[in-house]
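Can't paste images in this forum, so I'm doing it all in text. The chain is below; anyone willing to post the predicted structure tokens underneath?
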Amino acid sequence: MYDTIAAISTGPVTGAIGIVRLSGTAAVAAADRLFRADNGRALADAPARSMIGGALCDLSGRVLDRILAVVFRAPKSYTGENIVEFHCHGALPVLQEALRSLYDLGVRPARPGEFTKRAFLHGRMDLAQAEAVIDLITAQTADAARNAAGQIGGAISREIEAAYTLAADLCAQFRAEVDFPEEDVPPLSLPEAAVSLRAAAARLTALADTYARGRILREGVRCAIIGRPNVGKSSLLNALLGFDRAIVTDRPGTTRDTLEESVRLGGLWLRVSDTAGLRETRDETERLGVARARLAAQSAQLLFLVLDGSAPITDEDRAVMDQARGLPAIVVINKSDLPARIETDVLEAAFLHVCRVCAVNGDGLAQLDSLVRRLFESGAPPCDGGLLTNARHAEAVARAAAALVSAADALAGGITPDVVLTELEAGLDALGEVTGRCISEDIMHRVFERFCVGK
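Text version of the structure:
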């Protein structure tokens, strides 16, 4: 673990700035072989966390770039080790040549997530904070980014630690009673302990319940655009995307298959499926498309039910409306640029959320954005880091809550201390899986392999 690693932390793409990061015991010495500071001083003598201007050279002394270098000294660095960063212009050949020179000096390539893994192993962050780093990197919305930043700051860890400390203290008390019965161990108020355990379990259950919202932040919302043929479903998808992705014609039945794209709407990341028009047809290809449309609607977390506002409601419209009843749906009355002929009172009586849009010119899309936000934010907890976004965390927290309830039941039932100990230790193990106190090498490997190289 203590060898020196290096990687391009800005990714293998050309940009205005590219950063080469080194971490390990020999990071400063290796960087000094390639960097010539304008002030003539070695990086070994440079103040920590200060940008130093100079030239980046290869091992033969040829100048590769004019850069800024910064040193972060152990243990007050991201990894807990000495770190050096070269802030270069973003030409990939320059960054790659710098890496080749470092490798020739004995520095090895960093593996995916290895900088953050070292931060975890050196105690700079726990596993929940480390896993939040990848959530922040891959965040698709501002709310997702804010929640991940809050988790990196320890919002989840503090909640877990409070329950862990309570269970550990009770464990120590009962362990002393079981293992050292002859000692004068201070008596424990069993009713008070049971109340404390139930309160901790309730908080953990509430935390586990946030996963429903957190999963939406992390994975987005499955949204299906449904309606009869030729009401403007594909036009709506194109309007949401801002470019022509779906083919649009005046001929009904143009869309024969589901087409999925991702868009930001209502502060959320929507995975939107444009579907075939729902109707009875003898065309075998269109029938397959209609079947797929129905499946997409059944599995969706949100439906955009599109109707033609320039025409009365048809029997085909009613059939689609029947399929959408009772589901999270927004009725989108399209073609608002044409004279209205649709019976809006019928729609408003059947559905809570109705809006008018024109998919051709974009009118009404702001109202659709507001409706989506209102639908998913109503009663939702704030995205301040307290939402679980990881299925493994949610399962472990729920398991810990159940164990603490079982321990409280055992206390209330006057069951022997060894049974209480078994439940408390199960709860501790489950909580330790979240923070990394009790984590297998296999799980740790799977956590960090999801990271990009350089983080």
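The two ends are 16 Å apart (CA to CA). The CA atoms of residues 4 and 27 lie 6 Å apart.
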